[in-house]
């Protein structure tokens, strides 16, 4: 009976050693809640940085569109004035 008990204890010790090895592998391969929260915080900070960069770029694009709009308005008004002046000149110089 003692021999059977010895073999069972030996098997339990071997299984315990295997479980310890498996647990060590699991601990090295998986993250803890703390590690996960640190990573999530880092991702949130990075997303916020990208969001701020996009806001700045959108503001710059709006500013450039506004500048281009006023350049176009100035050109069209100037060109329209030139056409009116040319039409007036032609109309005043041609005698029927």
TrEMBL record:
Highest taxon listed in the record's lineage: Bacteria
Keyword Coiled coil: yes
Coiled-coil annotated spans: 2-53
Keywords per UniProt: Coiled coil, Membrane, Transmembrane, Transmembrane helix
TM spans (from-to): 72-91
Protein name: DUF1640 domain-containing protein
Species annotation: Massilia horti
Taxonomic lineage: Bacteria, Pseudomonadati, Pseudomonadota, Betaproteobacteria, Burkholderiales
